[in-house]
């Protein structure tokens, strides 16, 4: 059963006070907090068995290597990848997508080809593809977004052409929360002969993910948005595809043999893991996955959905506030504007009340343009948030409107 008190106990930071108020942390889409057990696991690794991985024959190196590879197995189980070698550790979603764009692009993208993205992508799932298109003389195309914040999938037959090499799409939008119909998109893209990368940065912490059921070619996510440490992420890729892709960085560990004439590359996944990885971070990610699994993704999803639907309902009823996006399937992420009030001012005032929200363009500038604004206010929930915190948010927003809104 979902035990909120026990879960909140695991996160000492939630007891902090901000400007004299209890912290109300509603910026989980930017980064979640970490439970003590993740921090303790990493401390323990540093204190008891820290040594470089895959390099030593000595005891500590073996312990650390085993812990690193156990974390890979955890990550594999977490997204139900077929094989552990399909899990590549990176610095985060951004690096995962850059790796895929560079390496897949080198192997498979030619002048005249097309890459398809969507109008609700984070910059991390736009710019690497744009850079690839510039390098290769390819074209970037975009699936538009409806007023309710859903992808216009009816545009797909027009947008997917024989020249489309890859579709890059967010599993869940970091701004609107919209959960995209990724399996349907994968089927459509595959039928057109295109590969699919799913940006799972805003999905893995909220819902069960099964990459085999989705049949996606790549799946990217970050540890720090799922109760794990910063600086670590995953790129999942289908083995046969990864095998045909060149390494994207050269250095230690990604090689089999090196001479000045020629270098041969290591097996998967190490071909894509040049240099000393953040193995302590990887161990922390493994612990975060164990933590999520101990609670259960379905229980987490149900809890967060209850929080988000209450918050949406209350926000919608607040005069002077405009919600952006209204997709029936959404993660616990809600963005809105208060006409006449700059989001930065709203965010600063809320902060004085101990409430942490995100304001700005959310690293999704094209989506801001789509909604005719330059920035928004976003609240994003995690399983440890409470219904009382929603009340505190609403009180805070009422004060913002009363103080700052010209129409009040
Ligand atoms: N979004 C947010 O507040 P990194 O920074 O590499 O861990 O994740 C990048 C990224 C990629 N895709 C999506 C959908 C994301 O939401 C993010 C990170 C944070 O919305 C920071 S801008």
> What is the approximate shape?
globular
> In total, how many domains does the architecture comprise?
2
Q: What is the residue-mean pLDDT, rounded to a whole number?
A: 97
Parts with pLDDT < 50 across at least 5 consecutive residues = none
Question: What is the CATH architecture assignment of the largest domain?
Answer: 3-Layer(aba) Sandwich
What is the terminal-to-terminal distance?
44 Å
Across the major sheet, the strand order is 4-10-9-8-7-5-6
DSSP helix fraction: 25-40%
Total of helices? 14
Q: What percent strand?
A: 15-25%
Bound molecules: ligand C6P
Number of strands: 17
CATH class of the largest domain: Alpha Beta
CATH domain topology of the largest domain: Aspartate Aminotransferase, domain 2
Sheet of most strands? 7 strands, mixed
* CATH superfamily membership of the largest domain: Type I PLP-dependent aspartate aminotransferase-like (Major domain)
Structural class: alpha/beta
Q: How large is the radius of gyration?
A: 22 Å
């Amino acid at each position: 059963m979902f035990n909120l008190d026990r879960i909140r106990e695991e996160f000492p930071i939630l007891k902090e006070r901000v400007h004299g108020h209890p912290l109300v942390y509603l910026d989980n889409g930017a980064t979640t907090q970490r439970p003590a057990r993740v921090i303790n696991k990493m401390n323990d690794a540093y204190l008891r068995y820290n040594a470089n991985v895959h390099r030593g024959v000595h005891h500590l190196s073996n312990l650390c290597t085993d812990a690193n590879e156990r974390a890979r197995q955890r990550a594999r189980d977490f997204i139900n990848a077929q094989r552990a070698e399909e899990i590549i550790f990176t610095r985060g979603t951004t690096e995962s997508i850059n790796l895929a764009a560079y390496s897949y692009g080198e192997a498979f993208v030619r002048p005249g080809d097309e890459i398809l993205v969507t109008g609700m992508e984070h910059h991390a799932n736009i710019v690497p593809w744009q850079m690839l298109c510039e390098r290769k003389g390819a074209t970037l195309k975009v699936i538009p977004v409806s007023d309710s914040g859903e992808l216009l999938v009816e545009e797909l037959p027009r947008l997917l052409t024989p020249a489309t090499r890859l579709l890059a799409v967010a599993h869940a939008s970091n701004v609107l929360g919209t959960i995209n119909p990724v399996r349907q998109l994968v089927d459509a893209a595959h039928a057109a002969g295109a590969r699919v990368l799913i940006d799972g940065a805003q999905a893995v912490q909220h819902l069960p993910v099964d990459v085999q059921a989705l049949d996606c070619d790549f799946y990217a996510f970050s540890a720090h948005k799922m109760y794990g440490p910063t600086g670590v992420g995953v790129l999942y890729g289908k083995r046969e595809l990864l095998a045909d892709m060149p390494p994207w960085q050269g250095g230690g560990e990604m090689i089999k043999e090196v001479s000045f004439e020629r270098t041969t590359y290591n097996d998967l996944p190490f071909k894509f893991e040049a240099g000393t990885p953040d193995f302590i971070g990887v161990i922390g990610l493994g612990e975060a996955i164990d933590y999520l699994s101990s609670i259960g993704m379905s229980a987490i999803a149900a809890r967060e959905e209850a929080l988000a639907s209450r918050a949406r309902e209350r926000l919608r009823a607040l005069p002077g506030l405009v919600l952006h996006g209204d997709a029936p399937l959404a993660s616990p992420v809600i963005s809105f504007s208060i006409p006449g009030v700059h989001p930065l001012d709203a965010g600063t005032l809320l902060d004085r009340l101990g409430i942490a929200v995100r304001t700005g363009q959310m690293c999704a500038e094209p989506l801001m343009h789509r909604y005719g604004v330059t920035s928004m206010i976003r609240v994003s929930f995690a399983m440890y948030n409470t219904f009382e915190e929603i009340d505190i948010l609403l009180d805070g927003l009422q004060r913002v409107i009363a103080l700052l809104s010209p129409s009040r």
